[in-house]
Amino acid sequence: MLNVDVIGNKKRKRCGRVFRFKNFGEPGYPVMFSGPFRENVSALLEYANSESNLGMGMPMWSFQLEVHHHPPLHIFLFVIEEPIEASFNRHCKHCQYVGWGHHFICNKKYHFVLPSKEALATCSSCEGCCDAIAAINNNNNNNGRSKLIELQGHMMHGVFHSNGFGHLLCVNGLETGSNLAGNQIMDFWNRLCIGLQARKVSLNDTSKKRGMELRLINGIAYSEPWFGRWGYKFGRGSFGVTQSMYQKAIEAIRSMPLYLLIHHIGANNSNNHDVPLIFSRYQTLSGQSLVTLGDLFRYMLELKSHLPREARVIGNNSYNCSLNNTGSSTSSAIVESNNNNCRWSPKRIEMATRVIVEALKRTEFRWISRQEVRDAARAYIGDTGLLDFVLKSLGNHVVGNYLVRRSLNPVTKVLEYCLEDISNHVYPNCNNEGSLAITNGNSNTNYNNNKIKDKYKITRAQLMKDMLYLYKYILIDPKPMMGLEFLSAIPLAARIILDTKFLVRDYSGEVPAFGIELGSDGKLNLYCTILLRNNSSCIEEFLNKAMPPYECITLRSNATINELKLEVERNFREIYWGLRGFVVESIGNNNFSGNNIIINNNGKDMVLGLIEVMAGKIVLEGWIGEIIGVNNNTMFGQMCESDPKNGIVECTCGTKEDDGERLVCCDICEIWQHTRCVRIPNDEEIPHIFLCKRCEQEIVMFPSLP
């Protein structure tokens, strides 16, 4: 069983060194990586502690990593080798979901795990859970597996196939009780991928915070998901979503003007006045112009990243914290802002201010025109000059627990006023500890704007509450309003973004155009792939498509063609399970529009001479021997990551392959479709008997028997 303490176990002797977490995986630390992926993994494991004595059923190694020295904190990185014989299912569902189902199955997988404390405790307390039982079941697939790679909730769990393609299965940061932040874990994973020279890595972005899908929030704010900081981009969309659809959906929401939402929502829905108030709140805090929905979400995320927990945004320590302001301070500010050149007394200005605020309160916090405010106040104040003076000076002033907002309607070009209740954002405690001062760097900032910022305070919890409100009532479920059909485009675009969960980063780059590089010590690096040939024409099309990615084959400069063939056979046999009996017959290239050109050659000819003739990437043709019978067509399908037993997917959304979403199978034609596309809600069970539309129509049209 596994018995490792995340902080260190004195009972367990360690002969290896301790590595710095923040540098692990960098060039030369702990090793200088120079070969292909599988060779780099072997070189890395030479510096690891072998854990074979733990009886895990699979070879396992560990690295002890120091996160920081004071206070001391060590974590462990476990590397577990999973041979194909130990797998419950040799087909990789992650490859199928991301569109790599045509890849050949590899002989090995390598799991890189930063285990959580709970996972280690579970393995430590479970007697016999990780014992190898291969000796008991010699010929079965029920071989012993490492319980560590089956547990959920690790700080990090990534898996690589031996051909260099991998999947990041989980990342859990501080909010889940981890010792590391999410960005620290991603930096670590990124260094591993670059150092080991991985090819492509996929991940399934389903991260949430307080019920909000972060790929939607970050997509609107930054035009890319959170993982985009590390180069992960659109990999494959579910429900037939393409990359073009994804990019257009992001741009449609990001570019939505705030003034359009403020005007229409505020004017047409009196029950949804919180949306324009939230807009104005962060417009005030930002000190700059927030024009679009993308600008707003970006500012909110950046503000959140700077706010300490349970902190509040404040202006300066000179703010008077009394919540019982009557309006006298406002009247004084109005007089001061007009250079004390005012023919009305502060008492009359205060009375007019109160009347205007009460008139605005009766509008239920909606935006109304200046004329409407003036007409409502004239019932109590007969001096129209006083009303005009106060309305002109009152914009963006705080009166008691309310902020009087003033804005020019961009559509009607009419001044409008709105009242915002800020009582929940003002605190009696003026202690500046743990707070964030708002400044806009301009020494000539308007006095009234600074006054508002002094009055305006917001907590991290309030910011998240505002973001959740916008997420729900703008992005996901906007309330239907007559004449505002354009708003319905927002949740449709949001749905497209949410249906894009599989992201991919290409770490390998492009293969050299001529398929050759000069390596160290004068050796040649040749980029080769293989093309399978078979006498059966029914699988010829499949074999032409099933070309594995190019492998870097290293040879001495005076190597012969026979040596190249042997090295290619050895490499591809080591990597791929279905190619263990692969034999090279001929050599060609595919430099001419994908057509393979066969090169006649003598096995004793020099490889360099062959390269000059081919002037392109090298393709070696061959056949598979005894390991997989060439006459059994179904076995060729078993060579690929996509499991042919999963059936045929042909959904109305255009999906032709399993994309990881819930599917239902027609009981007549046995074709699989998305439950969402056939209108079966996710919270309902799949019916015991299901017929697709086409089969239903055929049954209806079928003539009845006499």
TrEMBL record:
Pfam families: PHD, Ubiquitin_At1g33420, WHD_plant_repro. InterPro entries: MS1-like_ubiquitin, WHD_PTC1, Zinc_finger_PHD-type_CS, Znf_FYVE_PHD, Znf_MS1-like, Znf_PHD, Znf_PHD-finger, Znf_RING/FYVE/PHD. Keywords: Metal-binding, Transcription, Transcription regulation, Zinc, Zinc-finger. Residues 650-696 form the Zinc finger PHD-type domain. CDD domains: PHD_MMD1_like. SMART domains: PHD (SM00249). This is Zinc finger PHD-type domain-containing protein. It comes from Stylosanthes scabra. The lineage of its organism: Eukaryota, Viridiplantae, Streptophyta, Embryophyta, Tracheophyta.
